[in-house]
Amino acid sequence: MNEEMAAFYEAVYHLAARIPSGFVVTYGQIAWMLHAPQWSRQVGRAMRLAPADRAIPCHRVVNGQGRTVPGWLEQRLLLEQEGVAFRENGCVDLKHYRWKPIDGHSDKGE
DNA sequence: TTCTTGACAACAG
DNA sequence: GCTGTTGCCAAGA
């Protein structure tokens, strides 16, 4: 664990803590925001190591395919309570619930 | 020290 | 659109 890694983890926690209710973000997007798209896996690892002291809504973080964490059914329930709709296959509509810290209403494409 | 695993993303079928 | 395989980087045994 280097200082850079620790800073990356802190950035992940800080960003995840900014996720509003009713919206979700992907691991890859978080890594992309931190200028480290190759560290998408480390984002997921940071979430698993997410300390309760930060009160991080890690349940609002899903993978790029919109699928929830296998083995963690509670995540789906929590998101449903937030207002996020799930498909029959268990995937989330990232097209409608993907949170953007830079812009949160434009979805026309660019 | 090396090998295996993992809350993933991207590409192929 | 969904499932399966490959590659990335770090942590654990």
Task: Furnish the topology, listing elements before pairings.
Blueprint: H1 3-17, E1 25-26, H2 27-33, H3 40-48, E2 61-62, H4 73-82, H5 94-97
Parallel strand pairs: 1-2
Helix pairs in contact: 2-3
The structure holds a DNA duplex (13 and 13 nucleotides).
Would you write up a description of this structure?
The chain is mainly α and 110 residues long. Helices cover 41% and strands 4% of the residues. It contains 5 helices and 2 strands; from the N terminus they run αβααβαα. It has helices at residues 3-17, 27-33, 40-48, 73-82, 94-97, and strands at 25-26, 61-62. The protein has a two-stranded parallel ribbon with strand order 1-2. α2 crosses α3 (40-48). The longest helix has 15 residues, at 3-17. The protein starts with a helix and ends in a 13-residue tail after the last helix. The mean pLDDT is 88. The structure holds a DNA duplex (13 and 13 nucleotides).
